[in-house]
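Bump. Still looking for DNA polymerase III subunit gamma/tau structure tokens.
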Amino acid sequence: MSQFIVSARKYRPQRFDDVVGQDHITTTLKNAIRQNKVAHAFLFCGPRGVGKTTTARILAKTINCENITEDYEACGICASCVAFQKKNAPNIIELDAASNNSVEYIRNLNEQVRIPPAQGNYKLFIIDEVHMLSLAAFNAFLKTLEEPPPFAIFILATTEKHKILPTILSRCQIYDFKRNKVQDIIPHLANICDAEELKYDQEALHLIAEKADGALRDALSIFDRMVSFSDGNISYESVIDQLNILDYDYFFTLVDHLIVGDLSSSYLLFNQILEKGFNPEVFLQGLQEHLRQLLMIQLGNTAFLVNGSQDLLNRYTNQANQATRDFLLTLLDLANECDVNYRFAQNKRLHVEISLMKMAYFPHARQQDISGFSSPGETAPPSKKNGTKSLSSQPTARTTPTSGPRAKTVEETKSDYKTSEKNPVKTDQSARRDAPAPTKEEPRPPAASTSHSQPSSPATGDAPSPTAPESTTPSKKSRRRARKLLPTLDAMDEIIEEVEQNDANNQVVPDDDELIEMVQKTWKNFAENNSSPSLVSFLKDAELRWADDKLFITVTSQLAKSSILDQRTLFEQLRDATAPLTPEIVFVIKPSDSAAKKAPKILTTKDKYEALRKANPNLENLIKELNMKVEDI
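Sorry for the wait, here they are.
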């Protein structure tokens, strides 16, 4: 069996033009060679597998090439290039800082730098994973890196630039490699397939490029695995099966079910996905990505952010035209909420199924939300009670078909809401609901027919009056009930209505005397019904005072304040007693009279002597006989 060489090594770029997706770097390096302005130290940084070490090798080979081409590439046939390709070039030294990160290693490197090249004009040192060097090694490397011999060039490579000392960074020309784009990886994989005479599907290569997450080396590793699995025929089905990728056909079908509100089909499709062995979390991530693609397509100028083949983009476009923007935004919000709370759910499957239920119910809730709206340019659905229809004077601005009545955009809904505030006219259903029930059903007289296109004026109040506008708006109560069917992204209108309603129902505020009387009564009842003797003592000793809409509570100690603050039930009862006011409670600590007495003075030695002398006059004679002083006592 012959030795197999992986594609990442076999098809490693040998020229600047072969480097994939890093044109901003290769162009700069070629211009530096052309202008003879090659720096003495380079730092190549970026994510894994994007070509840092490969570019460093190409740069080293090109600098030492004896016959540089007209486009400033290495010739590949001179002695220096041939020696480099055979990995025995004496002037190009490749080092690994991950396994040689001590200060002794850098000292040996400094000694090698002083030796001039045996062949060629330059001696190049490629140090990979340079961030692994120790602090002492970095410091030992500073002087050599800043002022090397004229024939020495350093090329450093790292994936973690933030771990390198700023003193090292300031001595290097820094080149930031970017992640490889999917559009750049796919042609490279196709060229390898053509060179190896392999059959492939464009969609399969697209999946491999997406799975690589911006690393060309990872893409080539996955590609080799797919070649072995599919026996030289890389198909879309084989890639999905091997990489355990959830096919986007599932998400197209699921969104179709959600658009029409088919919950049972959505549950069956989700069960089919679980039976194939996919984790619900993978399903959520795929659904969010699919909804994001649809939203990018629908926004128009962001369509270029969608990755995929032309056939896939056409499918995204067709489905995006079948859904309204508020529908996609709501589904994306629900999917994101489900994903955020997924790890906290005890029943993972039920957690996802509840989110699917909300998504499938949204079209039905939206239809009920807009059933009472009828703006110019829109035909409202027929009423189920009396069969009447609203008139339509202009064609609709958006003709996207949906199931049932046309779903309004967010802008249209807000416009209708503003109109309803200025001209609140009740609809037939809301007026009939608010009116008292008749005691006896009376026959309705026939309406007078006219030859005009305007509706006739009926005898009863089932239809709008002639002075009312053509498009009636629902009452605030019916609109709020419809909007509470499902939470949406626009909930500020409901909050404003509720605040206004609460302001309209202002209660009469009692005066200060009545308030303090109710507070004292509540305070006394709580103290009488409490079983803690210490707390009851604190409550009875406290003084209550009402001033400037504040309740001042005077207690005798910090312990009393802390004990009272722990009584949550007490403050709830006080809040109910002072309703509708919510006073600020201020605690004042005032020690009692017994505690406020002045503490006894600490007596000195002299004070004690004077007190004893007054009690016993003979003490002074004793001190004189013993020849003692007061300070010695």
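The two ends are 108 Å apart (CA to CA).

Edit: fixed formatting.
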